[in-house]
Specification:
alpha/beta, 9 helices, 9 strands, 30% helix
Length: 287
């Protein structure tokens, strides 16, 4: 397994973006990095049916003080579908840990949006040495909190779907009236139907096995939970379920839906930065 040469992309006076494909045992994983490489590491994990691009609006607000790392989960964005067909959060967490090892990251604060919070939690379960703290953004705590969608399901016989079909399918991922960005529409269309549905089913199975707060309680990791109070996929009130985790910080964003990282990036970044400022220095110093 080798790490290919990175491809820097200059962005004005900001540190260059470096992106690369990591050749892992079950398929290539796409990663990109922004911000000072010597700064504390902050890993951003996207949710189902999207990719690392869902963080684009947030990244410039975080790079002044962090080495921001983004990853495309298997079968999403520019990452390959897993050769063994395993989309479980446990396997995703394992592969994320391997990717961070390859990047030389010894400690990181992990941020998961929506179902990205499940592999983030799995990583903390598997690699407590690697995870300094966790932040979950609109991550459903249990299937009891799920709001059944009224959007039309996409027919696998009509794959790839049209722009309008995707926007109807994804509408509940945003507050009412929010226009789904074209780049996210294109990325969902670039997925296979198998990757889309299997990844979602794997997240449901992970929650059905054990509710997320119950998984988090014994880990002893600092936890921040951010929820848009207009979320149409998970009951916003269910954010309070995470309060059983000792010391958990739970914040509701007024007017935001399921995807505040795009709808309200400045407010979301402010909450994350306040949290990371407290916890980023807990990582042990390298001898």
């Amino acid at each position: 397994m080798t790490l290919p040469d990175s491809q820097p992309q200059a962005n004005g006076d900001a540190p260059a973006t470096e992106d690369a494909l990591l050749h892992l045992d079950q398929g290539d994983i796409y990663v990109c990095q922004d911000g000072p490489r010597g700064a504390p590491a902050l890993l951003l994990i996207h949710g189902s049916a999207t990719s690392s691009r869902s963080w684009d609006a947030l990244v410039p607000l975080l790079t002044t003080s962090h080495r921001v790392i983004r990853i495309d989960l298997p079968g999403h964005g520019r990452s390959a579908e897993p050769a063994d067909g395993d989309y479980s959060p446990l396997e995703q967490g394992r592969r994320i840990g391997t990717a961070l090892d390859r990047l030389g990251v010894e400690r990181a604060i992990i941020v998961g949006h929506s179902s990205g919070g499940y592999p983030a939690t799995a990583l903390a379960e598997q690699r407590p040495d690697l995870v300094t703290a966790l932040a979950l953004i609109n991550t459903g705590p249990s299937m009891d909190a799920f709001i059944p969608s009224g959007s039309t399901a996409i027919d696998p016989t009509q794959w790839p779907p049209t722009d309008e079909q995707i926007r109807q399918f994804a509408s509940s991922a945003f507050r009412t009236g929010y226009h789904v960005p074209q780049e996210l529409v294109d990325e969902l269309r670039g997925m296979t139907y198998h990757a889309l549905t299997t990844a979602m089913q794997a997240s449901i199975a992970y929650l059905n096995q054990q509710a997320l707060p119950d998984r988090l309680m014994p880990l002893g990791k600092p936890l921040q939970v951010i929820f848009g109070d207009q979320d149409r996929r998970w009951r916003p009130s269910s954010a309070a379920d995470y309060r059983v985790v000792p010391g958990a910080r739970v914040e509701l964003l007024p007017g935001a839906g399921h995807t505040p990282i795009l709808e309200e990036p400045a407010q979301t970044a402010a909450l994350l930065l306040a949290f990371t400022e407290i916890h980023q220095d807990q990582a042990p110093k390298t001898p």
